[in-house]
Amino acid sequence: MLPTAGSTREHATGIWGTLLAWCALEALGRACDPADPDHAAVRLFEALRLREPMANAFAVLGIEGEQRWRAAARVRAAFAHAVWAPGAATPAARPAAVYVWLDDPDVAWLIDKHEHQGAHYFRKEPFERMVWWMALRALLAIAATPRPDLEAARALERSLTERLRTAEAANWRIEAFLEPPAPPGRARN
Protein backbone atom coordinates (compact mmCIF):
# COMPACT_ATOMS: atom_id res chain seq x y z
CA MET A 1 0.00 0.00 0.00
CA LEU A 2 2.69 2.45 1.00
CA PRO A 3 5.69 1.37 -1.06
CA THR A 4 8.38 3.03 1.00
CA ALA A 5 10.78 0.10 1.40
CA GLY A 6 13.86 0.89 -0.62
CA SER A 7 12.55 4.36 -1.50
CA THR A 8 14.59 7.48 -1.23
CA ARG A 9 13.83 9.65 1.76
CA GLU A 10 12.21 12.22 -0.52
CA HIS A 11 9.96 9.64 -2.16
CA ALA A 12 8.91 8.14 1.18
CA THR A 13 8.20 11.62 2.55
CA GLY A 14 5.82 12.29 -0.34
CA ILE A 15 3.98 9.02 0.25
CA TRP A 16 3.59 9.68 3.96
CA GLY A 17 2.55 13.26 3.24
CA THR A 18 -0.24 12.03 0.99
CA LEU A 19 -1.37 9.65 3.72
CA LEU A 20 -1.35 12.50 6.21
CA ALA A 21 -3.50 14.61 3.86
CA TRP A 22 -5.97 11.71 3.62
CA CYS A 23 -6.07 11.42 7.43
CA ALA A 24 -6.64 15.17 7.85
CA LEU A 25 -9.49 15.16 5.34
CA GLU A 26 -11.03 12.13 7.02
CA ALA A 27 -10.86 13.86 10.40
CA LEU A 28 -12.48 16.98 8.97
CA GLY A 29 -15.24 14.93 7.37
CA ARG A 30 -15.96 13.10 10.63
CA ALA A 31 -15.99 16.38 12.58
CA CYS A 32 -18.38 18.05 10.12
CA ASP A 33 -20.81 15.17 9.66
CA PRO A 34 -20.28 12.03 11.73
CA ALA A 35 -23.27 10.40 10.00
CA ASP A 36 -21.79 10.84 6.50
CA PRO A 37 -18.10 11.71 6.86
CA ASP A 38 -17.11 10.70 3.32
CA HIS A 39 -19.63 13.03 1.71
CA ALA A 40 -18.62 15.78 4.13
CA ALA A 41 -14.94 15.27 3.26
CA VAL A 42 -15.66 15.64 -0.46
CA ARG A 43 -17.80 18.74 0.17
CA LEU A 44 -14.96 20.27 2.18
CA PHE A 45 -12.37 19.31 -0.42
CA GLU A 46 -14.39 21.12 -3.09
CA ALA A 47 -15.67 24.06 -0.98
CA LEU A 48 -12.24 24.84 0.43
CA ARG A 49 -10.62 24.27 -2.95
CA LEU A 50 -8.04 21.95 -1.46
CA ARG A 51 -6.79 20.42 -4.71
CA GLU A 52 -4.21 23.12 -5.45
CA PRO A 53 -3.00 23.61 -1.86
CA MET A 54 -2.59 19.83 -1.50
CA ALA A 55 -0.75 19.57 -4.80
CA ASN A 56 1.54 22.43 -3.75
CA ALA A 57 2.17 20.81 -0.36
CA PHE A 58 2.97 17.53 -2.09
CA ALA A 59 5.48 19.37 -4.30
CA VAL A 60 7.25 20.64 -1.18
CA LEU A 61 7.37 17.02 0.01
CA GLY A 62 9.10 15.94 -3.19
CA ILE A 63 6.23 14.79 -5.39
CA GLU A 64 6.95 16.41 -8.72
CA GLY A 65 4.97 17.51 -11.75
CA GLU A 66 1.76 15.75 -12.61
CA GLN A 67 2.21 13.22 -9.79
CA ARG A 68 1.43 15.88 -7.18
CA TRP A 69 -1.93 16.53 -8.88
CA ARG A 70 -2.58 12.79 -9.10
CA ALA A 71 -1.92 12.46 -5.36
CA ALA A 72 -4.49 15.17 -4.62
CA ALA A 73 -6.97 13.49 -6.97
CA ARG A 74 -6.45 10.12 -5.21
CA VAL A 75 -7.18 11.70 -1.85
CA ARG A 76 -10.44 13.18 -3.14
CA ALA A 77 -11.48 10.03 -5.00
CA ALA A 78 -10.98 7.87 -1.91
CA PHE A 79 -13.76 9.82 -0.20
CA ALA A 80 -15.95 10.47 -3.23
CA HIS A 81 -16.19 6.75 -3.94
CA ALA A 82 -15.73 5.17 -0.52
CA VAL A 83 -18.69 2.86 -1.15
CA TRP A 84 -16.60 1.21 -3.89
CA ALA A 85 -13.64 0.64 -1.60
CA PRO A 86 -12.50 -2.94 -1.05
CA GLY A 87 -13.99 -4.18 2.18
CA ALA A 88 -16.95 -1.78 1.92
CA ALA A 89 -19.27 -4.46 0.51
CA THR A 90 -19.08 -7.83 -1.13
CA PRO A 91 -19.12 -7.69 -4.95
CA ALA A 92 -22.46 -9.49 -5.18
CA ALA A 93 -24.03 -6.96 -2.82
CA ARG A 94 -22.71 -3.88 -4.61
CA PRO A 95 -25.29 -2.31 -6.91
CA ALA A 96 -24.21 -1.43 -10.43
CA ALA A 97 -24.39 2.24 -9.42
CA VAL A 98 -21.30 1.72 -7.27
CA TYR A 99 -19.27 1.62 -10.45
CA VAL A 100 -20.13 5.24 -11.19
CA TRP A 101 -16.64 5.98 -9.89
CA LEU A 102 -15.32 5.15 -13.37
CA ASP A 103 -17.17 8.21 -14.70
CA ASP A 104 -15.52 10.53 -12.18
CA PRO A 105 -12.99 12.66 -14.10
CA ASP A 106 -10.39 12.21 -11.34
CA VAL A 107 -10.70 8.42 -11.34
CA ALA A 108 -10.77 8.27 -15.15
CA TRP A 109 -7.53 10.26 -15.23
CA LEU A 110 -5.94 8.26 -12.41
CA ILE A 111 -6.57 4.89 -14.09
CA ASP A 112 -5.89 6.24 -17.58
CA LYS A 113 -9.37 5.57 -18.94
CA HIS A 114 -9.15 5.81 -22.71
CA GLU A 115 -10.92 4.74 -25.89
CA HIS A 116 -9.55 2.44 -28.54
CA GLN A 117 -11.55 1.28 -31.56
CA GLY A 118 -14.86 2.17 -29.91
CA ALA A 119 -14.16 0.39 -26.62
CA HIS A 120 -13.11 1.98 -23.33
CA TYR A 121 -10.10 0.68 -21.45
CA PHE A 122 -8.06 1.47 -18.37
CA ARG A 123 -4.47 0.64 -17.56
CA LYS A 124 -3.39 -2.11 -15.19
CA GLU A 125 -0.82 -0.39 -12.96
CA PRO A 126 -2.79 2.81 -12.35
CA PHE A 127 -5.90 0.72 -11.63
CA GLU A 128 -3.98 -1.44 -9.16
CA ARG A 129 -2.67 1.69 -7.44
CA MET A 130 -6.19 3.10 -7.22
CA VAL A 131 -7.65 -0.14 -5.83
CA TRP A 132 -4.97 -0.26 -3.14
CA TRP A 133 -5.49 3.42 -2.33
CA MET A 134 -9.23 2.80 -1.99
CA ALA A 135 -8.41 0.06 0.55
CA LEU A 136 -6.61 2.52 2.82
CA ARG A 137 -9.49 2.88 5.29
CA ALA A 138 -9.86 -0.89 5.66
CA LEU A 139 -6.10 -1.31 6.09
CA LEU A 140 -5.98 1.39 8.75
CA ALA A 141 -8.95 -0.16 10.57
CA ILE A 142 -7.14 -3.51 10.69
CA ALA A 143 -3.92 -1.85 11.87
CA ALA A 144 -5.73 0.19 14.55
CA THR A 145 -6.86 -2.79 16.56
CA PRO A 146 -4.76 -3.85 19.55
CA ARG A 147 -4.27 -7.19 17.89
CA PRO A 148 -4.71 -7.11 14.09
CA ASP A 149 -7.50 -9.34 12.83
CA LEU A 150 -5.79 -11.73 10.44
CA GLU A 151 -9.10 -12.92 8.99
CA ALA A 152 -10.08 -9.32 8.21
CA ALA A 153 -6.71 -8.85 6.51
CA ARG A 154 -7.22 -12.04 4.49
CA ALA A 155 -10.77 -10.98 3.54
CA LEU A 156 -9.45 -7.62 2.37
CA GLU A 157 -6.71 -9.35 0.40
CA ARG A 158 -9.32 -11.60 -1.25
CA SER A 159 -11.44 -8.57 -2.12
CA LEU A 160 -8.47 -6.77 -3.67
CA THR A 161 -7.38 -9.88 -5.55
CA GLU A 162 -10.91 -10.42 -6.87
CA ARG A 163 -11.13 -6.87 -8.19
CA LEU A 164 -7.80 -7.17 -9.93
CA ARG A 165 -8.70 -10.56 -11.40
CA THR A 166 -12.05 -9.22 -12.60
CA ALA A 167 -10.30 -6.33 -14.35
CA GLU A 168 -7.73 -8.66 -15.89
CA ALA A 169 -10.45 -11.09 -17.04
CA ALA A 170 -12.15 -8.12 -18.70
CA ASN A 171 -8.85 -7.40 -20.49
CA TRP A 172 -8.89 -3.97 -18.86
CA ARG A 173 -11.98 -3.09 -20.94
CA ILE A 174 -14.47 -1.02 -18.96
CA GLU A 175 -17.61 -2.37 -20.61
CA ALA A 176 -16.61 -5.96 -19.83
CA PHE A 177 -15.48 -5.01 -16.32
CA LEU A 178 -18.92 -3.58 -15.57
CA GLU A 179 -20.82 -6.65 -16.78
CA PRO A 180 -22.45 -8.63 -14.00
CA PRO A 181 -20.56 -11.82 -13.17
CA ALA A 182 -21.49 -14.86 -15.25
CA PRO A 183 -23.52 -17.51 -13.46
CA PRO A 184 -21.42 -20.42 -12.18
CA GLY A 185 -20.45 -22.79 -14.97
CA ARG A 186 -20.87 -20.16 -17.71
CA ALA A 187 -18.01 -18.20 -19.17
CA ARG A 188 -18.07 -14.45 -19.63
CA ASN A 189 -18.18 -13.10 -23.18
Summarize the model shown.
With 189 residues, the protein is mainly alpha-helical.
Structural class: mainly alpha
Strand content: under 5%
* H/E element sequence: HHHHHEEHHHH
Main sheet characteristics: 2 strands, antiparallel
Care to describe what's here?
A two-stranded antiparallel sheet has the order 1-2. The chain has helices spanning 9-32, 37-47, 51-60, 66-80, 105-110, 124-134, 136-144, 150-169, 174-178; strands at residues 114-116, 119-121. The protein is globular and about 40 Å long. The longest helix is centred in the first third of the chain and has 24 residues, at 9-32. By secondary structure, it is mostly helical. Mean pLDDT is 85; it is low at 90-95.
Notable characteristics:
single chain; 189 residues; globular; 2 domains
Topology overview:
Layout (H helix, E strand, L loop, with lengths): L8 H24 L4 H11 L3 H10 L5 H15 L24 H6 L3 E3 L2 E3 L2 H11 L1 H9 L5 H20 L4 H5 L11
Antiparallel strand pairs: 1-2
Helix pairs in contact: 1-2, 1-3, 1-4, 2-4, 3-4, 6-8
